Amino acid sequence: MSTCTACTDRDAGDRYLCDRCTTRLGDRLAGLPDLYAELSIVPRVTGLAEVVTTAPTEARAPINLDVIDLCDLGGAVRVLEARRTDIQAARWPDRGAPAPADLMAHCRWLRMELDWIAAHYPAAAELAAEVRTLEGSALTIVGAPPPRAQRLGYCVAVTDDAGTVCGAALRRYPGEPVRCRWCGTQYRTEADLLLLRHYQPDEVA
Ligand SMILES: [Zn+2]
Ligand SMILES: [Zn+2]
């Protein structure tokens, strides 16, 4: 009888991971490929530096998470590949390292070996921590809503001698300067913005 090496809370019998931690690890491994696939289509809003500082320090072997971009598919593959190599060496010392594979294949392999890992792999808790970190890193990006363009009304710049008003819709992303993409007029100062607001046409509902 011993406590789970991952949650250090529940009884794991003669295994390294309790049933709940084993199930959670399996679920996370099942979800990782889709999560990282989504990463590639979501704009990056978190810098590498931020991600690196949030990586847990206890999960170091066999690969140093601190030096890897975990919000990158290649980084995730490297982490799981290193772990898979370690597990294969523990289980089948005579066999060589695993062939290079994609994230989906590594996750599938780890899930197939999950029962053996939970029972016999001494670093099962580190694997669980790594997978949790990978999931968390990806979620900081995928889970964050993409920045939305703000609508700021209509451009009030006069574009010719006849007094024609530009009238183009003004949009900007948060933090960007206000600039009409049609006539190029910039609204930079507070006076500019007040003028812009003052001359807005009445909204037709
Ligand atoms: Zn546990
Ligand atoms: Zn304009």
Q: Care to describe what's here?
A:
With about 200 residues, the chain is mainly alpha-helical. The radius of gyration is 26 Å and the shape is elongated. Mean pLDDT is about 85; it is low at about 45-60. The chain has a two-stranded antiparallel ribbon. Strands 3-4 form a two-stranded antiparallel sheet. The relative contact order is 0.13. It has 2 domains: about 1-140, no CATH class; about 150-200, no CATH class. Helices cover about 45% and strands about 10% of the residues. It has helices at about 20-40, 50-55, 75-90, 105-110, 115-120, 125-140, 190-200; strands at about 1-5, 10-15, 150-155, 170, 180, 185. It binds zinc ion (2 copies).
Instruction: List the ligand species.
Output: zinc ion
Uncertain segments are 46-60
- Estimate percent helicity: 40-55%
Percentage of residues in DSSP E strands: 5-15%
Count of alpha/pi helices: 7
Number of domains: 2
The structure class reads mainly alpha
The overall average pLDDT, rounded, is 83
Characteristics of this structure?
binds zinc ion, two-stranded antiparallel sheet, mainly alpha, 45% helix, 205 residues
Give a brief outline of the structure:
Helices cover 45% and strands 9% of the residues.
Q: What's the topology here?
A:
Elements (H helix, E strand, L loop, with lengths): L1 E2 L7 E3 L5 H21 L8 H7 L18 H19 L11 H10 L1 H7 L3 H19 L7 E5 L14 E4 L5 E2 L6 E2 L2 H9 L7
Antiparallel strand pairs: 1-2, 3-4, 5-6
Bound molecules: zinc ion (ZN) (2 copies).
The site of one zinc ion has 8 residues, from loops.
